Each structure stands twice: as structure tokens, then as C-alpha cells.
């Protein structure tokens, strides 16, 4: 959270965790941490890969959103799952997924929800 702007956790883009600028090449399952950047650009690197979201109990109390971009150079999927293994979304080549968890802002743990699957054109 930014001490200058006093932003909630879901606004981590403005607070400085927006995007590192690098593509992460996956060699297996990717487990996302609550502290990871909001925008995650991943190359499945030759095979479909599972991307596991943080456990609901670990999500920042004010919530968390991730934009997961599939940077595959071939027909390889990113299968986005919650920590129990339930599939939330699948981002195919040239797609991305926006997922959100409200955290404990409502007083109880929230579930991960798919906001959108977005078709992209990577340059």
C-alpha cells in the first residue's frame, strides 16, 4: 500500500507493483503470491501450464486483482486455478484473463472470480 496515496491493495498498479516488463517463461505450475505484480505476462513455454492463485486467506484484506497475459508463441494455454485446484479460467494463446478477489473487505474471505477473458495482440 502506498503511504503517499493511501491506496487499497487492488490499486497496487499505482502503488508501484504494476508490471516488471519481463515475460516469465514457465517450466511448470506457477503459484502466484499475493505480493506479485498486478499484471503477469507468462509464456507457457511449450506446454499448457497451471497458474495457481493465492489462497483466499492470504489475499490482502482490501482485495486483489491480477491480469494474467498468455505470451505463448504457439497454441499453449494457461489454466488459472484457485488454491483448491478449481479452474477459474483458461487463457489460450493471444488471450488474457482478469481475475479478482475482494479479500476480507466484506468481513469474510471472498472467492476468486473471473472478471473477463480478453483477446490480445502482443507485439
Please explain how this structure is put together:
- With 123 residues, the protein is mainly beta.
- It has one domain (9-119).
- It contains 1 helix and 9 strands.
- The strands form 2 sheets. A 5-stranded mixed sheet has the order 1-3-5-8-9, with no helix packed on it.
- The protein is elongated.
List key phrases describing it.
single chain, 123 residues, mainly beta, 5-stranded mixed sheet, 4-stranded mixed sheet
- Whole-number total of structural domains: 1
- Neighbour order of strands in the largest sheet: 1-3-5-8-9
Helix content: under 10%
The arrangement of helices and strands along the chain is HEEEEEEEEE
| Through-space gap between termini | 31 Å
Average pLDDT, rounded to a whole number, is 83
Beta content comes to 25-35%
Summarize the structure.
The protein has 123 residues and is mainly β. The protein is 4% helix and 35% strand.
